[in-house]
Amino acid sequence: MMILEQKSIERLNSLLKLPATGFEQDWDIELSDHRRIDEFVDVYSNYHDLSSSDKRALMALIISSCEDAINDNLLCDDLWKKVGNILTQDRELHLDLIDYWSHQSSSDACFQISKYLHVV
Questions:
Q1: Which of 28-32, 37-41, 65-69, 115-119 bottoms out in mean pLDDT, i.e. has the lowest?
Q2: Half-sphere exposure of 7 (CA within 13 A, CB side)
Q3: N or C: which end of the chain has fewer CB within 10 A?
Q4: What is the Cα 23 distance to its own chain's centre?
């Protein structure tokens, strides 16, 4: 998995008022929240002061939140279209993230979101 920069994690914790403790091992997975995907996408799309590092961290949070939504059968097509459009637009920035979440083999755990990412 890609390494997220601590300064971006701290910035997003503050910006999004995430319930981070500072002891998260897998920040994006531990703080994912499928109820806030639309909000996360809105910040990604409209908050123009995000650095590339901030965008990578935020997209990691979005993808993890989408995985949770899929697992709970709650990801709507319209919301995924927004996420997919961002991933397509900023594909180069998120290649390692796309690769991680779309990777599947018989020996690895399969992510439900991988089928969505194969079309990005």
A1: 115-119
A2: 4
A3: N
A4: 19
Long-range contacts of 93-97 (CB under 8 A, 24+ apart): 93/52, 93/55, 93/56, 93/59, 94/56, 94/59, 96/2, 97/2, 97/56, 97/59, 97/60, 97/63
How far is it, in rounded angstroms, from Cα 81 to Cα 57?
A: 20
pTM, whole model, 2 decimals?
Answer: 0.93
Q: Are 98 and 87 in contact (CB under 8 A)?
A: yes
Residue 107 has pLDDT above 70, yes or no: no
